[in-house]
C-alpha cells in the first residue's frame, strides 16, 4: 500500500502542458514531445531483399512453366495446379492466418506440387496433396522456415503412396486445350474412371521396355509426364534468373545435374544399355527437382560444402533409383532422403571460423 | 560375395528394420533425441545384433535342430542373458564405455529388432556369414534411422513447434515421412 | 509407491497410462499389424493372453526369483506364453497366424509386457496384478482397434473386411503401408494433444530462457507508448 | 609488395599473398556523397558542455574539480584511474556547474561534469609545453599520450597509450593505420586524410618511434581516391610507409579484416592484433596524437560527420568533446520532418539515441539521422536458411544457427559455436531477408554469457 | 506322446537355463557395482522442477544431499508440505523449516506514471531493450516492462499488469531467484513475507529531476528517514535505503508523508488492485 | 551418483547365493520346456494338417481340381517318387502331377519364387509340358504392397488370364496387347509385381520344362503300359 494514489500521480504527470515544459527546477530541457525518436539495435539500415520478395519472385519465375503446362496438357493442367495451390494456401490461411499467406511460400508449395502431378489427376486428390503437404510437411513443424522436408514433395509423396495408380496415369500431351485428359472432376474420395488416353513416360519406357526417347522430344516436352517436368528450357531459364538474383544457390542444381551426368556417362560407357546423360537430365522431374525443389533453402544445407554434398547425394540417389531401383523415377525420393540428411550435413560442415584451425577448437 | 552385399544393403535401406519392418520402434522413438546418443545407441545395437546373429546361428545349428518350437524362447533367453552378462562386464571393465554404450544395452534386449533379427535369419535359412552380414546391415539400418531422426529432432528442438505437436505426434509424422522417403529404395536391385 | 485402489489399477492402463497412446510402448505390433481390424483384434487377444498369463505367474513367483536373474526369468515366463499362443494360433486359425507373421513371436519383446512385469506385477499381489494386466491389455486393444479401424477404413474402404465406403471409393493405399502406420499414430497423438489442450486454457508462451520472441519489429506496436510522444 | 613473414602460419590461409580485401562481408550503399565534399569546419562553442567520466574503454576517470570551479580549455578535470584509463580535459573554458547524472552517449545515465561555457573568456588553449617527440623515450611518449587523454577515435575508444606498449612477448612488426572508414555515411576520417595528410604522417612518425617499428601501412578503401592521393603525395620520404587501396566492403575497417586484407594473416580467435605483429590505429587517433605533439593540446575536440538524410545540412565538424547532440543538430540546420532515429557512430554499428541532451564524446565518430523510410519496422519472419548471413559474416560464423540457438536461449551452446568471435558487426542482420535481429540477439547472448561466467567465477 | 521328445525339450531349455544361470551367477560374483537405491526413490518424490531454488544442481543432486543429511527436505520450497513430510518420513529425518519469502519489485513506475523518452523497437525482451540505449524509458533505473521476469518464472507467479509492471503472486512464488537473475535492471529482491516496508524505486536522481521522469519515484526528500524509527532508513545517493537488519523496528508511519508513494507498506501482493488498509494507516 | 564396488557394503542388500540363480533359471527353463512341448504335441499334427491341406488346396486351384495327385521330388534333373535317402525332404523341390477323373494326367503343379517389388513372391502354377500351356496360377506368398502389388492375388482378371496361356508368357500393358495366346495383361500400377509373376513362371518352365516333358512322356507311356 502506498500514500499516493497512482491515478493522482499519473494525472499530475499529464497535467503539465506538454511534457518538459514548465517543469520548475528540472535543469534538463527534454523535448520528448517534439521528436518521437525511435530506438533500434544496430544495424540501423537493412538490405532491401525480404523473404516476401524472394518468395513472390519465385512464384513469378514459375508462371512461364505453369503457362507451358497449359499449352502441353490443356486447361486441366491449370485446374490441377490451381487446386493444389488452393489446398496449400487455404490450409496455411486457415491454420496460421493471413499474415503467413502473404509471405508467398505456401503459394510456391502449391504451384510446385501441382507441377509434379499428372494432368488428369482428380482435383480432389490435388487438393488433398496441398492440404497434407502444408499441414504435415510445414505447419506442424512450426511453419515457414522450420520444416525439414520439402512440403510440396511431402504432399506428392503422400499422394504417390496413397493413390499410386492415379498418380502414374499419364495422359498424352497435346490432346487439345479443352480435352478431357483424365477424370479431373471425380467426386471426392471416389476413384477416377480410367478411360483416358495414357502414354508411358520416357522413364517408364526406359525401365519397363528398355527404349529411350528422342532427345528432341524430351527437350521440347512433347512427352508424357507431370505438368512441370516437360518444360525443361523454361525451368532452366527461371532457375538462371533466380540464381543471378541470388534467390537460389546455383551449387545445388549444378551439383545435381553434374553428378547425374557424370554417373550416367560412366555407366553408359561401361554398358550402352544404360541411358545416356542427356536422356537422364531431360527426362522425368530432374530439372524441376534440381532447379526448384532441391533449392528450397529451408530444406537444403546452409553451408557451401553442405550444398555440394547435398547435391551430389541427390544426383547419386536419382541414378541409383532410376537405374537399379524398382521405380522408374526417383527424384522425389532422392530429394526427400537428402532433406532428411540436411540437419546432419549441416552439423558436419560448419564453416571454419576466422582465426581458428579446422578440426581444432580455438587456435 | 554379391549375395552377401545385397543382404546387407537390403537389410539396411530397402527393408530397413525401423522404417519398413516396424521393428524396434520403442527405442527408436525414445532414444532419438540427440545425435550423440543416437550414435551410441546405434553402435550398441549393431553390437547386440551381431551377438544375436551368432547366438541364433549356434542355437539353430547345434541345439534346436530338432525342436524348432523352442526357438522363440531359447533365442530370447539366450540373448537376454548374454546381454546382461556383457553389460555387467562392460560396467566393471570400462566404466567409460559403460556410460557411452552400456546404459542402452538393457533397452536393446527387450527390443523387437533383436528378436526379429534372429527370427528372420532363421526363417530365411541364413548361414553364419549371411547371418552376420544381415545383422550388420540391419544394425546399420537402425543406426541410420536413429541418427537421421536424431539430427532432425535436434533441429526441430529449435523451432516453434505448435503446442499440440510437442508430444510425440510430430516425431511420428516425421517417422512416417522418413518411411515414405525410404519407399524410394523399394525394389532396389530386385529387377 | 503410492497406494492405489483396485479400480485405479484396472482403469489406469485403459486411458491415463495407455501403453500405446500415452506411454508409447509396444509400438511395433501396434503399427505393424494394424492394417486390418481382424489382425488388430487377433494381436490384441494374443497379447492379452500373454500379459495376463505372465502377470499371474510373475506376481506369484516374484518372491522366489532372485533379483539378478529377474529379467531373464520374466522373459522366460513371457516367452513360454508366447510360444503357446504361437502354437495355438497356428493350429487353430492358420490364416491369422500367417498374417501376423513374426509379430506373434515378437510379443515376447513387446516392451509393454516386460514393463508391466517390472513396474507392477512383480511388486503386487496376484489379484491386483491381474487387474492391472487386464487394464493394460484393454488399453492396448483400444489403441489397436483405433489404429486398425481407421487404417482399414481409409486404406481399404472396409471394416473387418466388410465394405463400408461404397463401391466407388478410392482406397488410400498409404494407410496400409508402413508410412501410414506412423502417420495414423501421429494423427491420433495429435488429436489427443489437441483434445487435452482444448480443455485447458492456452499456456502462456514460455520463451525465456528457452527463447526470445523475435516477431517484434512490428510486434512492438501494441507496446508503443504514443502517449509519451504525443 | 610488402609481405611480412607470418608469425602465426595458419593452415587454410595458404601462405596467402596480401590481397586488398577479406572474404565475405556486405555492400551497403555507402551514401557518403552527403558530406564527402564538405570541408571540415569548426563549430562555435555551445552554452554548456557535458563531459561524462566514462568516455573510454576501461575504468572511468576520477573527477578533480568540484561545482563552482573555474576551468580553462584544456585543463585536466578528471584523472586517469589506473593504466587502462585516461584523463578528461575541459573542452571549453567556464565554470563547473555540477557533477551528477546525465544522459550518456550510450543511452544510459552516467556521471558527468557539466561546464557552463564562459561566452566571453578566451577559448584558446593556454600556451603549453609542446613535447619534442624526437627526444622522448617510448615510455615518455606513452605517458604523454595518456596524459593527453587520447583514445582510439575509430569507435571503441580504447585508450591509445595501451596499444603503444605491447608486451615484450609480442614483437610488433609494423603499424597499421585504419583509414578504411567502411561505415556508410561517415566521412570524418576521409576528410582528415584529405585535409590533414601531413598531420597523419607526423602522427605515424611518432607512433613508429614509440613502438620502435620500421614499417607502416595505411589502409584506405578505394572509394576515397582523393584521400589516397593526398596521403601518397604527402608521404614522408625515408620512412618505410605505404598506402594500400582496399576493396570497398563492410566491415573492411574492422581490425581483423583490415589485417587480413593487408597481410593475409588471420588474427587467431581470441587474440589481439599484436599477436600477429601489428598495432591498428584509426587515422583520426593518429591525427589526435600528432596534435598532442604539435600544439601540446590534449584531446578536447574531435572531428565528427553530422550527416544522414534527415539532417538538413550535413557537415564535417570539429566539435568540442561534450557538446550536446541538440546543439550540434541546431548548428547543422536541424532535423527534417521524417526523422526517425538518430545514431551516434555509423548506421551499421552505431548507437541510437533516445535523448537530445546526450553529449558527443571522444569516441563519437559521427551523428547520423535516419528517416522513417529507412528505419521503418519490418516484419520478422522465421529464418528461412537462405545462408546469406553465412555468406556475409566476415568471421565465418553460422549466424543462422546462432540465431536459432539464441532464440531458444541456449547460450552455452552458442559459445561452442564461437559466439565469442562475433564482433557484432551487424552484417548478418543487414542481409537477413527475414529481418531477424541477429546481431542484437548475439549481443544479448554475449552479455548473458558474460554474466554467467562472472557468476560462476 | 513321445516321451523322448518331451524329455529332450525339457532338457534343452533346462540346459539353456542352467548354462546362463551359471554364467550370470559367475558374472554377478565378479562384476557387480552398487549404488544407493534411495537416491532414485527420493528423486521420484521430488517435484522434478529442477529449478535450483534449493541451491543444488537439479532435483537429483538435492536428493543425494538429503540422503547424506546435508540438507533438510524443507529446503525444497517447491514441494508441498505433504510431500515434504513424505520425503522426511522415507528418510527418517525432520522435514525442517523454511521461511516464506517472495520476490518484490523495486520499481513502481508503470507506463501510467513514468515517462518514455523514445520508442524501442526490437526483441521483446527487457535485456535486449536495456542494451539498446536503455530501452527509451525516461528513468534509466526503472522497469522497462517487457516481461523477462514473467517469462522465466517457472511457477507462473508473475503476471504483467495493465501498466506493464510485473505483479508477483505471493501464493505461487517459491523464491527461486530466477526473476532476480533475469531482470537486467536488478529490480527484484527476495523478501520475507513478514517484512512490510519497501522502497520501490531505484532512481538516483534528486528532486524534480526524479519526479519529471516518474511520478512515483523516490526524490530523496528525506521524510521517511525522519518518520521511521531512528537508523532504520538512511538516505544514500539520493535514495532512501532501509536497513533490513533492523527491520523489526518497522511501522507504517514511515510511509505516511512520502510525497510520491515510493516507499510502501506491503501486505500480501505488491500492486494489489485494492490496496488493503495497513495496520497503522489510521495514524495518518 | 555414488557408485561403489561391493562386496556388500550397501545397506539392505544381502549377498545372493549363486546356486539360487542357477537353479531358478534351470528349473524355470525345464518347466517351460515341458509346458511348451506338451502343447506342441497337441498342436503339431494340426499344423501339419493345415499345411498339407493348404498344399492340396493350392494344387487343386492350379490344376482345376484333379481327381488325385502324385508327388515327385526333383533330384539331379529327374523326377523321383521317393526322396533319396538322407536328403532333407523339406528342402527338395517338389512337383505334383494331377490326374483327372479318367486318370489322364492334367499337368504338373510347379512352385517358383523370385524377387518381386518388395520381397520374394512365391507362386504355384499348373503346367502342361506337351502343350506348353500354363493351366493356372496361384500366389502362395508375397509381401507386395497391399492394394497395389497384391493385386497379383486379388485381381481376378489377372489370375484368370493364366488359365490356358501359352508359355513363354509375354506380359503386355493393359489393353495394349495384340491378342496373341501368349499374352497376359499386366496390372496397371503393379507392373513390377505382374512381371515378376510372369518371369517366375517362365523361368521355372525354362528350367523344368524338358524334365517334365520327358517325365510326362515316360509316365504316360508307363501308365499306358501298366493299363
Ligand atoms: C582487455 C583488452 C586488452 C587489450 N589490450 C590491447 C593491447 O595490449 N594492445 C593493443 O594493441 N590492443 C589492445 N586491445 C584493444 C583491441 O585490440 C581493440 O583495438 C579494441 O578493443 C578496439 O577495437 P575495435 O575498435 O575494433 O572494436 C585490448 C582490448 C581489450 C578489451
Ligand atoms: C565491424 C567493425 C567495423 C569497424 N570499422 C572501422 C572503420 O571503418 N574505421 C575505423 O577506423 N575503425 C573501425 N573499426 C574499429 C577497428 O576495429 C579498430 O578498433 C580501430 O581501427 C582501432 O583504432 P583506434 O583504437 O584508433 O580506434 C571497426 C570495428 C568493427 C568491429
Ligand atoms: C509406395 C509404393 C508401393 C509400390 N508397390 C508396388 C508393388 O507392390 N508392386 C508393383 O509392381 N509396383 C509397386 N509400386 C510401383 C509403382 O506403382 C510403379 O510405378 C508401377 O509398378 C509401374 O507400373 P505402370 O507402368 O503400370 O504405371 C509401388 C510404388 C509406390 C510408390
Ligand atoms: C528457390 C526456392 C525454391 C523453393 N522450392 C520449394 C519447394 O520445392 N517446395 C515447397 O514447398 N516450397 C518451396 N519453396 C518455398 C519455401 O521455401 C517453402 O515453402 C518452405 O519449405 C516453407 O517453410 C521454395 C522457395 C525458394 C526460394
Ligand atoms: S554480427 Fe557477428 S555473426 Fe553477425 S556477421 Fe558480424 S561477426 Fe558475424
Ligand atoms: S540471413 Fe536470415 S533467413 Fe537467411 S539464413 Fe541467415 S538468419 Fe536465416
Ligand atoms: S521467478 Fe521470481 S516470482 Fe517466480 S517463483 Fe522465482 S522468485 Fe518467485
Ligand atoms: S522487472 Fe525487470 S525483467 Fe521484469 S519487466 Fe521490469 S525490467 Fe523486465
Ligand atoms: S514393441 Fe517396443 S521395440 Fe517393438
Helix-strand sequence of chain C: HHHHHHHEEHH
Oligomer category: heterohexamer
Spatial shape of chain C: globular
Arithmetic mean pLDDT of chain C:
80
Strand arrangement in the largest pleated sheet of chain C: 1-2
Rg of chain C, alpha carbons: 23 Å
Instruction: Give the number of helices of chain C.
Output: 9
Radius of gyration of chain E: 29 Å
Percentage of residues in strands of chain E: 5-15%
Biggest pleated sheet of chain E: 2 strands, antiparallel
Distance between the termini of chain C: 64 Å
Task: Give the end-to-end Cα distance of chain E, rounded to a whole number of Å.
Answer: 105 Å
Strand order of the largest sheet of chain E: 2-6
Main sheet properties of chain C = 2 strands, antiparallel
**Residue share in helices of chain C?**
55-70%
How would you sum up this structure, described in words?
The complex is a heterohexamer of chains A (363), B (191), C (230), D (457), E (284) and F (227). Chain A is mainly alpha-helical. Chain A is built from 15 helices and one strand, in the order αβαααααααααααααα. The radius of gyration of chain A is 27 Å and the shape is globular. In chain B, helix 4 (71-93) packs across helix 7 (112-123). The longest helix of chain B is centred in the N-terminal third of the chain and has 29 residues, at 35-63. Chain B is globular. The two termini of chain B are 18 Å apart. Chain C has 230 residues and is mainly alpha-helical. Chain C is 59% helix and 2% strand. The radius of gyration of chain C is 23 Å and the shape is globular. Residues 201-230 of chain C have low confidence and may be disordered. The model of chain E is unreliable at 274-284 (pLDDT under 50). Chain E has nine helices and ten strands. The longest helix of chain E has 29 residues, at 3-31. A two-stranded antiparallel sheet of chain E has the order 2-6. A two-stranded antiparallel ribbon of chain E has the order 4-5. In chain E, strand 4 and strand 5 (166-168) form a beta hairpin. Chains in contact: A-B, A-C, A-D, A-E, A-F, B-C, B-D, B-E, B-F, C-D, C-E, C-F, D-E, E-F. At the A-D interface, strand 1 and helix 2 of A face strand 15, strand 16, helix 12 and helix 13 of D. Bound molecules: flavin mononucleotide (FMN) (3 copies), riboflavin, iron/sulfur cluster (4 copies) and FE2/S2 (inorganic) cluster. Residues 383-389, 399-400, 403, 431-434, 436, 438 of chain D line the site of one iron/sulfur cluster.
Provide a quick synopsis of the model.
The complex is a heterohexamer of chains A (363), B (191), C (230), D (457), E (284) and F (227). Chain B is 72% helix and 0% strand.
Any descriptors?
heterohexamer; E: 284 residues; alpha+beta; two-stranded antiparallel sheet; 10 strands; 31% helix; elongated; disordered C terminus; F: 227 residues; seven-stranded antiparallel beta sheet; two-stranded parallel sheet; 25% strand; disordered N terminus; binds flavin mononucleotide; binds riboflavin; binds iron/sulfur cluster; binds FE2/S2 (inorganic) cluster
Amino acid at each position: 500500500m502506498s500514500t499516493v494514489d497512482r491515478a493522482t500521480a499519473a494525472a499530475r504527470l499529464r497535467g503539465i502542458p506538454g511534457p518538459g515544459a514548465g517543469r520548475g527546477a528540472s535543469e534538463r530541457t527534454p523535448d520528448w514531445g517534439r521528436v518521437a525518436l525511435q530506438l533500434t539495435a544496430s544495424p540501423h539500415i537493412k538490405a532491401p531483399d525480404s523473404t516476401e520478395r524472394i518468395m513472390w519472385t519465385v512464384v513469378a519465375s514459375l508462371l512461364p512453366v505453369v503457362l507451358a503446362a497449359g499449352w502441353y496438357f490443356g486447361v486441366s493442367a491449370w485446374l490441377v495446379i490451381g487446386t493444389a495451390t488452393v489446398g496449400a494456401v487455404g490450409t496455411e490461411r486457415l491454420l496460421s492466418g493471413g499474415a503467413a499467406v502473404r509471405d508467398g511460400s505456401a503459394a510456391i508449395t502449391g504451384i510446385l506440387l501441382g507441377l509434379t502431378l499428372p494432368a488428369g489427376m482428380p482435383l480432389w486428390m490435388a487438393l488433398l496433396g496441398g492440404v497434407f503437404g502444408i499441414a504435415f510437411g510445414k505447419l506442424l513443424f512450426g511453419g515457414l522456415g522450420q520444416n525439414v522436408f520439402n512440403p510440396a514433395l511431402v504432399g506428392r509423396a503422400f499422394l504417390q503412396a496413397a493413390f499410386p495408380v492415379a498418380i502414374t496415369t499419364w495422359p498424352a500431351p497435346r490432346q487439345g486445350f479443352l480435352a478431357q485428359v483424365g477424370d479431373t472432376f471425380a467426386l471426392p474420395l471416389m476413384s477416377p474412371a480410367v478411360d483416358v488416353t495414357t502414354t508411358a513416360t520416357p522413364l517408364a519406357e526406359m525401365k519397363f521396355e528398355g527404349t529411350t526417347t528422342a532427345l528432341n522430344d524430351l527437350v521440347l516436352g512433347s512427352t508424357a509426364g507431370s505438368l512441370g517436368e516437360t518444360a525443361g528450357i523454361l525451368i532452366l531459364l527461371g532457375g538462371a534468373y533466380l540464381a543471378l538474383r541470388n534467390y537460389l544457390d546455383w551449387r545445388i542444381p549444378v551439383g545435381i545435374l553434374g553428378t547425374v551426368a557424370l554417373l550416367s556417362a560412366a555407366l553408359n560407357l561401361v554398358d550402352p544399355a544404360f541411358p545416356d546423360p542427356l536422356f537422364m537430365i531431360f527426362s522425368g522431374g530432374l530439372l524441376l527437382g534440381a532447379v526448384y525443389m532441391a533449392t528450397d533453402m529451408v530444406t537444403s544445407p546452409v553451408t557451401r560444402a553442405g550444398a555440394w554434398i547435398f547435391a551430389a547425394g541427390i544426383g547419386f540417389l536419382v541414378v541409383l533409383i532410376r537405374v537399379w531401383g524398382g521405380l522408374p523415377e526417383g527424384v522425389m525420393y532422392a530429394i526427400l532422403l537428402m532433406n532428411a540428411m540436411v540437419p546432419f550435413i549441416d552439423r558436419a560442415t560448419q564453416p571454419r571460423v576466422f582465426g581458428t584451425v579446422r578440426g581444432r577448437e580455438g587456435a | 560375395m554379391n549375395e552377401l552385399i545385397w543382404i546387407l544393403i537390403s537389410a539396411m535401406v530397402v527393408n530397413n528394420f525401423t522404417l519398413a519392418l516396424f521393428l524396434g520402434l520403442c527405442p527408436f522413438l525414445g532414444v532419438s533425441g540427440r545425435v550423440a546418443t543416437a550414435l551410441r545407441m546405434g553402435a550398441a545395437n549393431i553390437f547386440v545384433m551381431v551377438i544375436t546373429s551368432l547366438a541364433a546361428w549356434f542355437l539353430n545349428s547345434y541345439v534346436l535342430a530338432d525342436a524348432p518350437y523352442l526357438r522363440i524362447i531359447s533365442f530370447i533367453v539366450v540373448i537376454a542373458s548374454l546381454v546382461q552378462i556383457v553389460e555387467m562386464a562392460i560396467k566393471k571393465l570400462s566404466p567409460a564405455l559403460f556410460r557411452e554404450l552400456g546404459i542402452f544395452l538393457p533397452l536393446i534386449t527387450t527390443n523387437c529388432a533383436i528378436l526379429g533379427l534372429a527370427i528372420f535369419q532363421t526363417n530365411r535359412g541364413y548361414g553364419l556369414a549371411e547371418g552376420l552380414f544381415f545383422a550388420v546391415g540391419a544394425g546399420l539400418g537402425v543406426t541410420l534411422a536413429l541418427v537421421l531422426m536424431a539430427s532432425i529432432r535436434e533441429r526441430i528442438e529449435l523451432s516453434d513447434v505448435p503446442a499440440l505437436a510437442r508430444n510425440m505426434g510430430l516425431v511420428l509424422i516425421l517417422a512416417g515421412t522418413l518411411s515414405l522417403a525410404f519407399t524410394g529404395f523399394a525394389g532396389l536391385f530386385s529387377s | 509407491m503410492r497406494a492405489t485402489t483396485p479400480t485405479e489399477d484396472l482403469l489406469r492402463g485403459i486411458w491415463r497410462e495407455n501403453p500405446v497412446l500415452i506411454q508409447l510402448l509396444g509400438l511395433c505390433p501396434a503399427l505393424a499389424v494394424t492394417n486390418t481390424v481382424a489382425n488388430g483384434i487377433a494381436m490384441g487377444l494374443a497379447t492379452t493372453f500373454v500379459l495376463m498369463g505372465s502377470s499371474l505367474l510373475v506376481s506369484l513367483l516374484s518372491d522366489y526369483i532372485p533379483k539378478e536373474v529377474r529379467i531373464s526369468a520374466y522373459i522366460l515366463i513371457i516367452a513360454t506364453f508366447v510360444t503357446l499362443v504361437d502354437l495355438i494360433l497356428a493350429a487353430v486359425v492358420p490364416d491369422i497366424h500367417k498374417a501376423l507373421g513374426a509379430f506373434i513371436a515378437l510379443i515376447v519383446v513387446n516392451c509393454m509386457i516386460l514393463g508391466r512385469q517390472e513396474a507392477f506385477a512383480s511388486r503386487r499381489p496376484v489379484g491386483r496384478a491381474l487387474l492391472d494386466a487386464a487394464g493394460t491389455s484393454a488399453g492396448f486393444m483400444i489403441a489397436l482397434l483405433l489404429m486398425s479401424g481407421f487404417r482399414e477404413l481409409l486404406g481399404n474402404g472396409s471394416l473387418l473386411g466388410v465394405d463400408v465406403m461404397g463401391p466407388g471409393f478410392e482406397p488410400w493405399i498409404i494407410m496400409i503401408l508402413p508410412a501410414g502406420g506412423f502417420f495414423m499414430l501421429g494423427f491420433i497423438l495429435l488429436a489427443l494433444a489437441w483434445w487435452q489442450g482444448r480443455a485447458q486454457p492456452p499456456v502462456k508462451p514460455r520463451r525465456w530462457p528457452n527463447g526470445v520472441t523475435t516477431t517484434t519489429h512490428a510486434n512492438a506496436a501494441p507496446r508503443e507508448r504514443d502517449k509519451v510522444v504525443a | 609488395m610488402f609481405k611480412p613473414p607470418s608469425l602465426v602460419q595458419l593452415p587454410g590461409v595458404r601462405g596467402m599473398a596480401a590481397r586488398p580485401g577479406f572474404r565475405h562481408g556486405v555492400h551497403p550503399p555507402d551514401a557518403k556523397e552527403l558530406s564527402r565534399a564538405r570541408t571540415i569546419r569548426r563549430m562555435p562553442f555551445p552554452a554548456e558542455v557535458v563531459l561524462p567520466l566514462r568516455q573510454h574503454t576501461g575504468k572511468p576517470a576520477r573527477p578533480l574539480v568540484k561545482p563552482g570551479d573555474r576551468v580553462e580549455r584544456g585543463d585536466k578535470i578528471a584523472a586517469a584511474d589506473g593504466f587502462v584509463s585516461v584523463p578528461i580535459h575541459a573542452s571549453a573554458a567556464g565554470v563547473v556547474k555540477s557533477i551528477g547524472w546525465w544522459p550518456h552517449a550510450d543511452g544510459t545515465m552516467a556521471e558527468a561534469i557539466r561546464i557552463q561555457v564562459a561566452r566571453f573568456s578566451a577559448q584558446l588553449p593556454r600556451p603549453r609545453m609542446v613535447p619534442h617527440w624526437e627526444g622522448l623515450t617510448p615510455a615518455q611518449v606513452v605517458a604523454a599520450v595518456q596524459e593527453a587523454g587520447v583514445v582510439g577515435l575509430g569507435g571503441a575508444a580504447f585508450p591509445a597509450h595501451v596499444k603503444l606498449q605491447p608486451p615484450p612477448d609480442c614483437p610488433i612488426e609494423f603499424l597499421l593505420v585504419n583509414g578504411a572508414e567502411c561505415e556508410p555515411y561517415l566521412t570524418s576520417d576521409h576528410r582528415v586524410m584529405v585535409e590533414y595528410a601531413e598531420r597523419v604522417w607526423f602522427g605515424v612518425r611518432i607512433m613508429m618511434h614509440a613502438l620502435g617499428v620500421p614499417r607502416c601501412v595505411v589502409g584506405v578503401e578505394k572509394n576515397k581516391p582523393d584521400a589516397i592521393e593526398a596521403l601518397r603525395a604527402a608521404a614522408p620520404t625515408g620512412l618505410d610507409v605505404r598506402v594500400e587501396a582496399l576493396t570497398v566492403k563492410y566491415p573492411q575497417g574492422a581490425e581483423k579484416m583490415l589485417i587480413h586484407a593487408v597481410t593475409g594473416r588471420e588474427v587467431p580467435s581470441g587474440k589481439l592484433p599484436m599477436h600477429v605483429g601489428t598495432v591498428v590505429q584509426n587515422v583520426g587517433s593518429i591525427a589526435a596524437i600528432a596534435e598532442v605533439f604539435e600544439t601540446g593540446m590534449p584531446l578536447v575536440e574531435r572531428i565528427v560527420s553530422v550527416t544522414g538524410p534527415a539532417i538538413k545540412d550535413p557537415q564535417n565538424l570539429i566539435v568540442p568533446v561534450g557538446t550536446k547532440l541538440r546543439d550540434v543538430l541546431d548548428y547543422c540546420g536541424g532535423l527534417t520532418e521524417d526523422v526517425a532515429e538518430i545514431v551516434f557512430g555509423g548506421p551499421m554499428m552505431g548507437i541510437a539515441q533516445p535523448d537530445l541532451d546526450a553529449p558527443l564524446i571522444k569516441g563519437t565518430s559521427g551523428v547520423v539521422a535516419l528517416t522513417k523510410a529507412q528505419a521503418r519496422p519490418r516484419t520478422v519472419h522465421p529464418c528461412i536458411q537462405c545462408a546469406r548471413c553465412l555468406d556475409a559474416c566476415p568471421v565465418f560464423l553460422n549466424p543462422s544457427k546462432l540465431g536459432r540457438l539464441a532464440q531458444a536461449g541456449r547460450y552455452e551452446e552458442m559459445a561452442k559455436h564461437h559466439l565469442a568471435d562475433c564482433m557484432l558487426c551487424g552484417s548478418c542482420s543487414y542481409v537477413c531477408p527475414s529481418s531477424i535481429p541477429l546481431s542484437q540477439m548475439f549481443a544479448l547472448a554475449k552479455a548473458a554469457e558474460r554474466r554467467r561466467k562472472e557468476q560462476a567465477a | 506322446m513321445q516321451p523322448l521328445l518331451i524329455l529332450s525339450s525339457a532338457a534343452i531349455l533346462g540346459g539353456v537355463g542352467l548354462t546362463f544361470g551359471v554364467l550370470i551367477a559367475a558374472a554377478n560374483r565378479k562384476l557387480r557395482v552398487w549404488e544407493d537405491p534411495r537416491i532414485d526413490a527420493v528423486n521420484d518424490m521430488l517435484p522434478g522442477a529442477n529449478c535450483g531454488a534449493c541451491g543444488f544442481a537439479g532435483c537429483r543432486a538435492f536428493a543425494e544431499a538429503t540422503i547424506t543429511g546435508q540438507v533438510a527436505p524443507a529446503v525444497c520450497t517447491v514441494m508441498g508440505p505433504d510431500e515434504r513430510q513424505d520425503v522426511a518420513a522415507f528418510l527418517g529425518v525432520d522435514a525442517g523449516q523454511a521461511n516464506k519469502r517472495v520476490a518484490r519489485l523495486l520499481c513502481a513506475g508503470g507506463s501510467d506514471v513514468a515517462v518514455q523518452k523514445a520508442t524501442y523497437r526490437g526483441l521483446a525482451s527487457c535485456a535486449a531493450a536495456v542494451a539498446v540505449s536503455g530501452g527509451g524509458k525516461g528513468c534509466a533505473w526503472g522497469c522497462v516492462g517487457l516481461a523477462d521476469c514473467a517469462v522465466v518464472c517457472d511457477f507462473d507467479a508473475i503476471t504483467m499488469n495493465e501498466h506493464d509492471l510485473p505483479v508477483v503472486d505471493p501464493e505461487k512464488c517459491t523464491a527461486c531467484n530466477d526473476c532476480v537473475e533475469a531482470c537486467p535492471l536488478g529490480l527484484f529482491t527476495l523478501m520475507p513475507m513478514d517484512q512490510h516496508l519497501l522502497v520501490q524505486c531505484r532512481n538516483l536522481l534528486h528532486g524534480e529531476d526524479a519526479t519529471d521522469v516518474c511520478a512515483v519515484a523516490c526524490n530523496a526528500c528525506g521524510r521517511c528517514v525522519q518518520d521511521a524509527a531512528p537508523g532504520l532508513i538512511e538516505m544514500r545517493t539520493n535514495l532512501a535505503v532501509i536497513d533490513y537488519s533492523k527491520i523489526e523496528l518497522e511501522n507504517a508511519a514511515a510511509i505516511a508523508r512520502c510525497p510520491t508513494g515510493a516507499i510502501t507498506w506491503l501486505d500480501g501482493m505488491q500492486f494489489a488492485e485494492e490496496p488493503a488498509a495497513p495496520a497503522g494507516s489510521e495514524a495518518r | 551418483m555414488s557408485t561403489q564396488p561391493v562386496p556388500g557394503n550397501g545397506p539392505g542388500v544381502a549377498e545372493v547365493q549363486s546356486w539360487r540363480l542357477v537353479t531358478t533359471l534351470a528349473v524355470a527353463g525345464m518347466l517351460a520346456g515341458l509346458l511348451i512341448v506338451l502343447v506342441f504335441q497337441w498342436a503339431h499334427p494340426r499344423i501339419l494338417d493345415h499345411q498339407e491341406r493348404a498344399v492340396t488346396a493350392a494344387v487343386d486351384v492350379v490344376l482345376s481340381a484333379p481327381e488325385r495327385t502324385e508327388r515327385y521330388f526333383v533330384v539331379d534333373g529327374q523326377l523321383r517318387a521317393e526322396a533319396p535317402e538322407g536328403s532333407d525332404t523339406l528342402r527338395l523341390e517338389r512337383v505334383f502331377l494331377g490326374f483327372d477323373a479318367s486318370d489322364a494326367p492334367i499337368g504338373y503343379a510347379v512352385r517358383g519364387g523370385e524377387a518381386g517389388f518388395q520381397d520374394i513372391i512365391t507362386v504355384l502354377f499348373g503346367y502342361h509340358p506337351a502343350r506348353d500351356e500354363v493351366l493356372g496360377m496361384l500366389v502362395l506368398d508375397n509381401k507386395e504392397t497391399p492394394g497395389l502389388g497384391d493385386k497379383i492375388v486379388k485381381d481376378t482378371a489377372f489370375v484368370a488370364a493364366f488359365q490356358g496361356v501359352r508359355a513363354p508368357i509375354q506380359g503386355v500393358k493393359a489393353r495394349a496387347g495384340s491378342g496373341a495366346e501368349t499374352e497376359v495383361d499386366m496390372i496397371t500400377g503393379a507392373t513390377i509385381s505382374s512381371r515378376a509373376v510372369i518371369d517366375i513362371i517362365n523361368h521355372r518352365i525354362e528350367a523344368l520344362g524338358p524334365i517334365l516333358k520327358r517325365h510326362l512322356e515316360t509316365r504316360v507311356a508307363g501308365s499306358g503300359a501298366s493299363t
